[in-house]
């Protein structure tokens, strides 16, 4: 059976057969931190879709190829992220081939830094632990896709809140202040009922964002001495992280702690004096102003977790950095399928436009083709392959 290999496209066909025999290998039982979250399909793809919406020129892996190569199972096998952020980034990682060779080399360098420095990888895991929660799964949508808005005319909330607090004190001097106070409270109740629901929905995401920003110094400290650019980038983002976290923390402080009676009293104050509406609007405005930088912080932290996850998943596996060439030559030495435990390694070399792959039924032709497709895809995304040596042109993987 001939398989065509044009210079820019690596085509596989008939890969949808015999898929039932592939299952993810057993997950590494040594993973120190147990996950407290589970991503839905939409949450898993959230960061990937955000990238596609931001840059329409991104050439993502098509769904047919992704399904035929069983990349969902490959993702499940390799995904050892501590946080939902890392898992979302890693999924986008695998779905988005990198056209820039420099990016692939940097991916390899970061993954190998964690592989060769397990103590630093462990410190990073500990620094990421506060984000090991379900609520962190919605942070990608909040920062990249959600339209953050505050009610029109929200600036009037602040003087109304201040006057609502000060006016009742006038009743100690004159009963006249009772009626303005009552009118203000009624107006505030109406405003609270009208607008509070539109901003209170962001409260869980703001709380998770505060946790992310609080973790930035510990994450930067955990990768010291690895000479990674992410350390410098986190240090540069630290002032913004501190400023936004303070704004969010003041907001969340209004809703936390106390017994039942205290919480009821706080709720009445929030309704009558617009404390929650004002503080949430202020926090959302602060996030809107620094949304680009906050997105960068998300990307850096998620990338570190994803690279650490890949290095943890392949720490005991045979992997190599892919070498790309401008020639047509494609060469794999001791390549194997990552989903098959104790897989038999094979080698292949091709200098032409096509490859003839033959053999008896059940000899492993489909498995070998899938192994080639998966490893070519990994080479173009992460830059690493499950092989002893990999030399290949910068081809596109596609199944028919």
Protein described:
The protein is α/β, with parallel strands linked by helices and 400 residues long. Helix content is 55%, strand content 9%. The protein has 16 helices and ten strands. The protein has helices at residues 41-44, 46-54, 63-68, 71-78, 84-95, 101-116, 118-128, 139-144, 157-166, 178-200, 203-222, 229-253, 260-273, 275-289, 291-313, 365-381; strands spanning 2-4, 9-12, 320-321, 323-325, 330-335, 346-350, 354-356, 384-385, 389-393, 396-399. It has a four-stranded mixed β-sheet, with helices on one face. The longest helix has 25 residues, at 229-253. The chain starts with a strand and ends with a strand. The model is unreliable at 1-8 and 16-31 (pLDDT under 50).
Q: How many helical elements? A: 16
Tell me what portion of residues adopts beta-strand conformation.
5-15%
SSE pattern, N- to C-terminal: EEHHHHHHHHHHHHHHHEEEEEHEEE
From the structure provided, what is the oligomeric state, counting identical versus distinct chains?
single chain
Please outline the major beta sheet: 4 strands, mixed
Q: What is the 3D form? A: elongated
Query: Strands of the biggest beta sheet: in what spatial order?
Result: 4-9-5-6
Overall number of strands: 10
Instruction: Work out the radius of gyration.
Output: 27 Å
Unreliable stretches covering 5 or more consecutive residues: 1-8, 16-31
Query: What's the mean pLDDT score?
Result: 85
User: How far apart lie the N and C ends?
Assistant: 14 Å
What class would the helix/strand composition place it in? Answer: alpha/beta
Helix content: 40-55%
């Amino acid at each position: 059976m001939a398989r065509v290999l044009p210079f820019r496209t690596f085509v596989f066909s008939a890969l949808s057969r015999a898929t039932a025999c592939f299952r993810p290998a057993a997950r590494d039982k040594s993973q120190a931190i147990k996950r407290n979250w589970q991503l839905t399909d939409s949450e898993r793809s959230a960061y990937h879709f955000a990238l596609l919406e931001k840059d329409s020129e991104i050439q993502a892996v098509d769904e047919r190829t992704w399904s035929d190569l069983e990349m969902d199972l490959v993702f499940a096998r390799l995904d050892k992220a501590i946080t939902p952020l890392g898992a979302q980034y890693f999924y986008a990682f695998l779905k988005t081939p990198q056209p820039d060779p420099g990016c692939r080399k940097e991916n390899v360098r970061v993954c190998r830094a964690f592989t060769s420095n397990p103590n630093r990888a462990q410190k990073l895991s500990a620094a990421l632990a506060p984000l090991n929660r379900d609520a962190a799964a919605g942070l990608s949508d909040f920062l990249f896709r959600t339209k953050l808005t505050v009610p029109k005319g929200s600036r009037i909330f602040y003087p109304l809140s201040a006057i609502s607090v000060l006016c009742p004190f006038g009743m100690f001097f004159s009963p006249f202040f009772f009626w303005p106070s009552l009118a203000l409270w009624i107006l505030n109740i109406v405003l609270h009922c009208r607008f509070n629901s539109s901003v209170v929905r962001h409260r869980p995401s703001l709380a998770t964002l505060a946790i992310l920003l609080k973790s930035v110094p510990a994450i930067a400290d955990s990768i010291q001495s690895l000479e990674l650019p992410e350390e410098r980038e986190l240090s540069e983002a630290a002032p913004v992280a501190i400023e936004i976290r303070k704004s969010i923390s003041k907001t969340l402080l209004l809703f936390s702690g106390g017994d039942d009676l205290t919480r009821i009293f706080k709720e009445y104050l929030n309704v009558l004096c617009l404390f929650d509406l004002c503080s949430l609007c202020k926090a959302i405005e602060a996030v809107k102003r620094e949304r680009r930088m906050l997105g960068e912080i998300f990307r850096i932290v998620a990338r570190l977790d994803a690279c650490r996850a890949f290095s943890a998943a392949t720490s005991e596996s045979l992997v190599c950095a892919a070498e790309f060439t401008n020639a047509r030559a494609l060469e794999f030495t001791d390549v194997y399928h990552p989903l098959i435990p104790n897989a038999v390694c094979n080698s292949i070399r091709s200098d032409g436009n096509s490859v003839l792959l033959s053999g008896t039924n059940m000899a492993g032709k489909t498995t070998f083709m899938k192994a080639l497709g998966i490893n070519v895809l990994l080479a173009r995304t992460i830059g690493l392959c499950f092989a002893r040596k990999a030399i290949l042109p910068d081809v596109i993987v596609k199944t028919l």
